[in-house]
């Protein structure tokens, strides 16, 4: 892994070293000498003495009060030399903290930047060299004149401001950098609020100020980061992170954190424990960490938690909460910031009335960013959709020959004006808060995709009632990362938002995939470094198929896509866990009729393993000071093994039940464990999901669904001549 400091040094030197100069220090000295028309040796000597000269000038004038301090910084040229020498990295590399501003500009997609207290323009040059539209705000005309000259010499454009003589544009910048400047101001809180007002909502401010006194710099009026932390709420800022000692602030309300469902915070001697009873997991916290989690209450921001937690350092607290969120111990609700223009693309083939209902729901969205752009791509509907959409303010594009939903989505995305492109299907209607719920997740520049929950109405017969709780489009009630190896492997394209630039980089949906193209797109995005997040609060209502034949054909069609996806993404190979204890009990069930003694031995071994697990869990819980005995541990352990049986049964039903039931005709003892595997998933789901169906109707539809899926898997294996979908990676587990 590359050294961040070395990378910053390289970026800094590349931006500031003039062509033909051997190194950064000589280049900066020679550049200043050329500007002043002075011998380089004389300039070099003044550079080395610059810091001492500044300190002496400050002590000689001893400015008192805001006007006197401002007057000191408006006059004199000592800073020309002091800053040039600091930027040369001749004595230390502390100036490299300024490169953090460029890193954040890249990470957050910033375009317009303000360098406040820009001095001789070094950071401005760095930002401009990397394509940003830069404004430099500086009160000293001598420094600003030199910065202008440096920009002109390099052929770079910039805007130069006197921040005391002219107002900063409201919400005019994506990035504001205040690097080693606020500590010079008598009223940094006022300056922070002024800079925050110049940021667009969701924009980024990078601030660096020393946190220790420096006897060589008496002009530093304060050195307490807590002073800035205390000013953040009034300025409308929140701390996102600390990087190399620099504070990365964002305009708006901060993210809110809350304990993940099923977790509880328990106080124990010396700290606390985050306890989950299902599954039984205990995560130990020291006392300081326990106080931080307790300070969240039912849910709060890092600033709110810091206010409730005396002595808490905001940067430490923020990093701690983010770490717990990454481990899914905390739920993180992103802050509402900027509301970019969103274009919604609807691929449509037929379903005229449903298409109109879909578009009407999009036009009724409650989105703070203003009206969304709705683009409907009519994929050769007969008759065309124009009449069905008459009177609706949506853009309609027509393919005279059907090219499929992927091509329709790509055609719509190519026309989109929005920074974000959302997709839904013409058999869906969206909830009014759909975009409002999902767009904030894309406020994190690392997130390329966000999607929400797909639900179906239970009315309309048994198939619709089954789909309402068991649809393969519904990723469930829990949020999380999406991708290969994640608990949420994919999101359907009927409820998906993507960054337009990412879609362009990926080439859009794969048009040669009749199904599974949405999964492929997200996985390719993940491979390109973009994150994908699932947030169930962004809801789309999908009108599922209501006839048994159509329902089973669709499941078989989905299954064929699994084979195609594995061909394209070998890393997606399925992992199948084989739980030892469950297998022993199933083996006992098979052997009891023919060899009771062998079955009894297997059952005894399984029970011994359960007893050992119970004892080990009990010791761990007692060691954590929870005071939970076997009465609490035993149900949790049984639930875990029931879950193992459930997942094993679902795997068998989805991939292997047809040949296994055929084998049971030849060896009847196999039938009992096979029925246990086949019944565990549907009966568990019926009890958990409570569908509007009788248990045996639900079980029958469950079996029919997975039989259709299995038939599709086997057909796909034959179509692409590969057995890999049937050959998972196997892991033995207790």
Structure description:
- This protein has 734 residues and is α/β, with parallel strands linked by helices.
- 47% of the residues lie in helices and 17% in strands.
- It has 27 helices and 25 strands.
- It is globular and about 100 Å long.
- It starts with a helix and ends with a strand.
- The mean pLDDT is 92.
Number of helices: 27
Strand content: 15-25%
Q: Unreliable runs, pLDDT <50, ≥5 residues?
A: none
Q: What composes the largest sheet?
A: 8 strands, mixed
Report the span from N to C terminus. Answer: 36 Å
Radius of gyration based on Cα positions: 32 Å
Rounded mean pLDDT is 92
The total strand number stands at 25
Q: Sum up the overall morphology in one term.
A: globular
Helix content: 40-55%
> Strand order within the widest sheet?
15-14-13-16-21-18-22-20
Which key phrases capture this entry?
734 residues; alpha/beta; eight-stranded mixed sheet
